[in-house]
Specification:
Blueprint lengths: L11 H27 L19 E3 L2 E4 L5 E4 L7 E11 L3 H9 L1 H13 L3 H4 L2 H15 L8 E9 L1
Antiparallel strand pairs: 1-2, 2-4, 3-4, 4-5
Helix pairs in contact: 3-5
């Protein structure tokens, strides 16, 4: 003999729980439908950040200044380690969109090149800024395939005590 769901006998407590579950489910469906129809621009906004072109790109005389690496706090190889704050930037041709895309994709790797370099040298070795820039320029260009950095600049190059 088949038993059907609707012919089962439920206690009052079971009926209250069943109605409560149905009410919660129906409320969730209506709230979801309301939010999706009233704010369609917010759907999925918390899932992924929109990538944007860095605000700190400036175009000057056919060259673009790339500052998106940002300020870095590095430590030196000294014992105890000395903190160094550096903000590197460089220029590249404005028309070279492929090179810019490569820079954006390899930003984390370029940051780690800076941090690794400073971690391998002592404060005394890092005081010659011209030598540091030349060595870093070689290491950065070794990472890049679609173009080369010609000159490296430091907006901030400061040792902290």
């Amino acid at each position: 003999m088949k038993r059907q769901f609707f012919h089962l006998r439920f206690t009052t407590f079971q009926k209250v729980l069943l109605y409560l579950c149905a009410l919660i489910f129906i409320s969730a469906v209506f709230v979801t439908a309301y939010v999706m129809t009233s704010h369609p621009e917010k759907i999925g906004s918390g899932l992924r950040r929109i990538e944007h072109v860095p605000d700190n790109l400036e175009k000057k005389s056919g060259k673009t200044v790339y500052k998106d690496i940002g300020q870095l706090r590095a430590i030196t190889a000294d014992v105890p380690p000395v903190s160094l704050v550096v903000t590197p930037y460089f220029t590249f041709p404005s028309a070279d969109g492929e090179f810019f895309e490569e820079l954006v994709q390899k930003k984390r790797r370029l940051r780690s090149v800076f941090l690794d370099y400073f971690a391998l040298h002592s404060k005394d070795e890092l005081t010659d800024e011209k030598k540091v820039k030349q060595e870093l320029l070689e290491k950065l260009n070794a990472e890049l395939m679609l173009g080369k950095i010609e000159v490296l600049y430091f907006e901030v190059y400061q040792f902290l005590n």
